[in-house]
Write a structure and sequence with these properties.
38% of the residues lie in helices and 3% in strands. It has helices spanning 6-13, 30-49, 54-64, 70-89, 94-100, 123-129, 131-144, 155-165, 234-239, 253-256, 272-275, 278-283, 313-320, 338-345; strands at 247-251, 328-332. Strands 1-2 form a two-stranded parallel ribbon. It starts with 5 loop residues before the first helix and ends in a 6-residue tail after the last helix. The protein is elongated and about 85 Å long.
């Protein structure tokens, strides 16, 4: 049985998420090739685990996805299943199959790359062997307008989510443009404290209290109103002199807590349960800032794919001083580097 090692898959799929879809296709097919190879490898594993052909395995894989993705997934599978069934029946590797499907190639000056063991007769001979299939597929893809893998139904919907997620380091839904949002994903409250008033940019986590927050909670820490005994704002009574401190992280995928669930790459572990939060995970760029060391702030409710308790610098500060409530910003970016830090990442910081 072909196996896609978790570490190897993680390294390859990283090409899908950094400065991400700006240059979706690299050498030898780049991320299109990697995505195709991993998906075909999973289908082959499913076929072996459940003793079924590739068509049934593809159907099973689509059934594991969230309900909204199942129809487009099946539509995309129907495009390639006749070719895939034939190649897997002939014991072609996922690498060779994806060359035949046109998602992998050998660019001038490069050797054929592979994730799986090279065929016994060598990669060059395997590519010559599948050339007729490649010609048929190329003609079909040209007729259907499927130049890259993100045009294929099912995969297109996922690529659309990734394009939206990677479009900016600021929340995609932020009515008052203060850098904070009421939604969780797309750089919302998973990444920055939840906005308590998305219609007034003066009101957001970490803001200076307006008139002591007598009338309303402008800094979103849950403290407002007037103490009837002292006649002072509760914000002054509870927070003055306590030196409230927020947490801001500027960094790369480590700070953003990038994590690809290993269950996604092992056929025996695939089930609807491991994909039930797929949209949430994709919309958060396959990062988990809400569980990270710097800005973790929720209990772990993803037990099927990620284990362990949550602790963070933000949670420690909030425990010591509740005036710090919601005052966190995680501006970790997959593939972030010193150049992008200065040009774009640091500019996403709001205060």
């Amino acid at each position: 049985m072909w196996r896609c090692l978790g570490l190897l898959c993680t390294a390859v799929l990283l090409s899908l998420v950094p400065a991400a879809r700006v240059d979706a296709v690299g050498a030898n097919g780049g991320s299109d090739c990697a995505t195709c190879t991993i998906l075909v490898g999973l289908v082959e594993q499913l076929a072996q685990v459940y003793d079924e052909d590739a068509e049934a395995a593809l159907e099973r894989f689509c059934s594991f996805l969230p309900e909204q993705l199942q129809p487009p997934c099946k539509a995309g599978a129907a495009v390639f299943v006749p070719y895939l069934v034939d190649m897997l029946y002939k014991k072609e590797t996922p690498d060779v199959a994806c060359h035949a499907l046109g998602f992998c190639k050998v660019d001038p000056g490069h050797q054929a790359c592979h994730l799986f063991p090279v065929p016994k007769a060598g990669m060059d001979e395997a590519l010559r062997r599948i050339r007729p299939i490649y010609n048929d597929v190329s003609k079909m893809r040209q007729e259907r307008g499927l130049p890259d893998i993100c045009k294929v139904p099912g995969i297109k919907e996922i690529c659309d989510i990734l394009d939206r997620a990677f479009d900016s380091h600021l929340p995609s839904e932020d009515l008052d443009k203060d850098g904070h949002s009421t939604m969780k994903t797309f750089r919302g409250s998973s990444w920055r404290g939840k906005d308590c008033n998305d219609f007034d940019k003066r009101h957001h986590p970490g803001a200076r209290p307006i008139d002591g927050d007598i009338a309303m909670d402008s800094n979103c820490n849950g403290i407002f109103g007037l103490d009837s005994e002292t006649g002072l704002p509760y914000e002054d009574v509870l927070c003055n002199g306590t030196e409230p401190r927020g947490v801001v992280l500027l960094g790369d995928s480590i700070g953003a807590h990038f994590h690809l669930p290993p269950q996604w790459f092992e056929a025996k572990s695939l089930s609807p349960a491991v994909f039930k939060d797929l949209f949430f995970i994709l919309e958060n760029e396959i990062d988990w800032p809400e569980l990270s060391t710097a800005t973790g702030h929720i209990n772990n409710t993803f037990g099927e794919i990620i284990q362990g308790p949550v602790d963070s610098i933000y949670m420690r500060l909030r425990e010591r001083n509740r005036c710090n409530h919601r005052d966190y910003q995680n501006i970790g970016v997959n593939g972030g580097a010193s150049g992008s830090m200065n040009s774009s990442i640091v500019k996403s910081l709001v205060r």
